[in-house]
Amino acid sequence: MTKHFDRWSIVVIILTLLLFGVALFEKGFTHDMLLEAGVFLVSVKLILMSHKNSVLAYKTEEHLQQIQEMLRQRS
Q1: Are 59 and 5 in contact, with CB atoms under 8 Å apart?
Q2: Total count of domains within the chain
Q3: pLDDT in tens, the chain (75 residues)
Q4: Burial class of residue 49 in the structure, from the number of CB atoms within 10 Å of its CB (0-12 exposed, 13-18 middle, 19+ buried)
Q5: Quick check: is 2 in a domain?
Q6: 51: containing domain
């Protein structure tokens, strides 16, 4: 997990889950809970996008290293 998330991202993920849990028990299942759920889903989406970007950056770096190695072998 720490391969694609730094320490602060993990802290934000945990804090988001804790705050959503507190809001759930504090407000109960009312209309305001829909707003809280929407905010939570936006946070989850941002976390997923961050993870996807990290994975893609890692794969791109691997491909670039393979290209560099192939170029070294040709020269």
Answers
A1: no
A2: 1
A3: 556 667 877 787 788 888 888 877 877 777 777 777 788 788 888 888 888 898 899 999 999 999 999 999 997
A4: exposed
A5: no
A6: 7-74
